[in-house]
Amino acid sequence: MKTILSAFLLICCSLISQAQVYPVNANLEDEKSFSMILLPDPQSYIKFAANQPLFDLQTAWIANNIETLHIKNVLCTGDLVEQNSIIQADGINGDQTSREQWEAVSRSFEKLDGKVPYVVCTGNHDYGYKASEKRFTQFRYYFYPERNHCLQESLIAAGNNYEGLPTLENAVYEFISDTWGKILVLSLEFAPRDEAIEWARHIIGDKKYKDHKVILLTHSFLDYEGKRFITENYQMQDVNYAEALWQKLVYPSDNIKLVICGHECHITDYAQQVSFRTDKNHSGNEVAQMMFNAQTADGQWFGNGGDCWLRILEFKPDGKTISVRTFSPLFALSPTTCQYAWRKQPFDQFNITLTEK
Asked: What are the Calcineurin-like phosphoesterase domain coordinates in residue numbering (predicted)?
């Protein structure tokens, strides 16, 4: 019996010693912090079959690091697919039909189901046929509270979509920590309708949530120069682009502290895929606004989808500082590329300080 037990323990030790090793991996800068992981627009991973495993890698890495990074939530900036409703791929801007794309992005997020909540907003490519010709989206057929009990536990309200149905296109989630108190994450549809904005104002303006810190997640807000979009060339009706959203929702609100978006990207310069700015709301408090989109980070429009870059948002125990770092699980996997696993330019690693007068 002792021989059998010894052999079993030897096998277990052998398996442990052969567990997957990342030459470089992420850790919290302060062990008392918690984090949220920011996934930029995944559409270019999803539209090509060969790229889809790269988005799988990102969500698998997140699942493996929930405990290490004290991950409370995962945020995704939208454009989950390249085309919302096509039945034939052109072989140039993707080789996957819309059904194949939605199924693929849904499978990637399955790796997080039952493990951590994730908040996903909708982008312009998630509507219409190819890009927001109309408000219809297949989003609600693939993303709904019942698929992830962690999501159900944090969801406090869902607004109506254009059909008058409550979906996660417009939703509010609550997260609580000892150091940061109560946080709301508000996710809004692409170019939200007046109805969606009024719903959001009613929710975050409720006296129950007046002391919550609110993070607004929306697909399109800042361009690469840090300017808010005044208009965009889409055919949908009843739209509010970034400046209108600022004026109608963000500026009048006392508790929106941070706006996060994706959307904007340029092939030639990675620095033009990120931006940041702060402005004062009506109470004189600073509102931080951050854009992050890596889909052409490899310098190609039809490339690998973004080199697996994501952002680690570390919420420091002081209750006001968020450390932003940009990391690639893809590069971190190999000793031959791990030296490139962190982006270290000032626009890739910085602190956001949320202050009040």
From this structure: 75-265
Tens-digit pLDDT profile for residues 111-140: 999 999 999 999 999 999 988 999 999 999
| Phi, psi (deg, nearest 5) at residue 149 | -65, -25
Report in angstroms the alpha-carbon separations of 71 from 27, 32, 220, 240: 11, 12, 25, 32
Question: CA–CA separation, 157 vs 199, rounded Å?
Answer: 10
Let me know how long the chain is: 357
**What's the CA gap between 298 and 321, in Å, rounded?**
30
110 φ, ψ (degrees, to nearest 5): -60, -25
Whether residue 207 has pLDDT greater than 60: yes
Q: How far apart (Å, rounded) are the C-alpha atoms in residues 168 and 189?
A: 9
For residue 269, CA distances in Å to 28, 177, 265, 298 come to: 29, 38, 9, 10
Is the distance from CB of 243 to CB of 228 less than 8 angstroms? yes
3-state secondary structure of 146: helix
Q: What is the pLDDT of residues 133-178, one digit of tens each?
A: 999 999 999 999 999 999 999 999 999 999 999 999 999 999 999 9
Tell me the average pLDDT across 86-103: 97
Q: Render pLDDT for 280-301 as a digit per residue (tens, 0 to 9).
A: 999 999 999 999 999 988 888 8
Enumerate the domain spans of the chain: 26-353
In CATH, the architecture of 26-353 is: 4-Layer Sandwich (3.60)
User: Can you tell me the distance from the alpha carbon of 36 to that of 23, in angstroms, rounded to the nearest whole number?
Assistant: 23
Give me 121's structure tokens.
């907003």
